[in-house]
Amino acid sequence: RATGKKSFRVSARRANKKFPYQSPELNQMVGTLILENFPHLTVDLHNPGFDLTLEIGYNQAYIYMEQRPGPGGLPVGITGKALLLLSGGIDSPVAGWLSMKRGLSIEALHFHSFPFTSKHSQEKTADLCRRLANYSHKIVLHMISLTEIQKKLRQDCPAELGIILLRRMMLRLAKCLAEERKLQALITGDNLGQVASQTLESITVVSQVTDMLILRPLVGFDKAEIIKLAIDIDTYDLSVLPYEDCCTVFLPKNPVTKPKLSVVKRYEELLPLEAMLAEAYETLDTTIVRRPGETGN
After folding, report:
1. Cross-strand partners of 211
2. Do residues 124 and 226 lie in contact, with contact meaning Cβ atoms separated by under 8 Å?
3. Which residues contact 135 (CB under 8 A, 6 or more apart)?
4. Alpha-carbon distance 24 to 31, whole Å?
5. pLDDT score, position 30
6. How open is the CA angle 122-127-131, to the nearest 5 degrees?
7. Alpha-carbon torsion 86, 90, 93, 97, what sign?
8. Among 2, 119, 124, 167, which residue's CB has the most CB atoms within a 10 Å radius?
9. Cα gap 65→202, rounded to integer Å
10. Rounded (5°) CA angle 141-245-231
């Protein structure tokens, strides 16, 4: 790859500070060796034809000429732990990846409505976690059935409020799980104005059901930007598989876009909330999903 180049520079770095030679000495030693073997080359520290980088670790050394930008961000786990509400669509896996990029270690919670939704939707979610595990070694995946909750909401509440009521139930369950797992925040794929349940009014009414911090990494993204990120992190092809998630079951024709908290609470007071939530939480199933080819803890 250095064919045709007339000048070079050596840039040494030492992660292992106990290595007997300091970086300037390494630069000089390696540079001298190159000049002895390739006399047509000259040293240019300011505008070299190629830059030979030498990294000294504890058990190995790396030598390379080409650098490619990675995703950037912080090491996973350095800023805390959070619970990702993973729907199986395009948005929530991207929200999870962006959260990991900022150093969060994530666990995932998927709500399903079997038998109204097929087992394929749950398998798809596990596959999405497997893709996300490429960036964090493993993902702890939790699944909770909302089937009975959705049947009760459909029976006793106005259809147009169904999604708002359902999402409030989701956050109640998510908070319970997060506290049990000692996770510090919830993460959602909400994107302002994208669907009826993501208007400012809807997000406000849903959020007021919990005092736990809710992170929404996608709130300022448009759909094209989210799709591009999904393609880049290799989740898009799975996300668009045509398997329904729980939010598409009993979807009303005209969902409310500006719900009033007082009205929502009035209908919730007519429901046996504690019993509904306890029954749903008993369906909790937890697995550990690792990136392909990996085993262990």
Report:
1. none
2. no
3. 71, 76, 97, 100, 233
4. 10
5. 95
6. 145
7. negative
8. 167
9. 52
10. 75
Question: In sequence order, what are the beta bridge partners of 55?
Answer: 13, 62
Asked whether 183 and 82 are in contact (CB, 8 A), the reply is yes
Please provide the DSSP assignment of the chain as one string: --TT--EEEEEEEES-TTSSS-HHHHHHHHHHHHHHH-TT-EE-SSS-SEEEEEEE-SS-EEEES--------B-TTSSEEEEEE--SSSHHHHHHHHHHHBTEEEEEEEEE-TTTS-HHHHHHHHHHHHHHGGGTSEEEEEEEE-HHHHHHHHHHS-GGGHHHHHHHHHHHHHHHHHHHTT--EEE----TTSSGGGSHHHHHHHHTT--S-EE-TTTT--HHHHHHHHHHTT-HHHHTSS---GGGTT--SS--SS--HHHHHHHHTTS-HHHHHHHHHTT-EEEEEE-TT----
- Give 1's pLDDT tier (boundaries 50, 70, 90): low
pLDDT at 246 over 60: no
CA separation (Å) from 194 to 40, 161, 205, 255, 285? 61, 18, 16, 13, 30
| Both tokens assigned to 106 | 């994530």
pLDDT band at 198 (very low <50, low <70, confident <90, very high): confident
Query: In this structure, which amino acid lies at residue 154?
Result: R
- Amino acid sitting at position 218: L
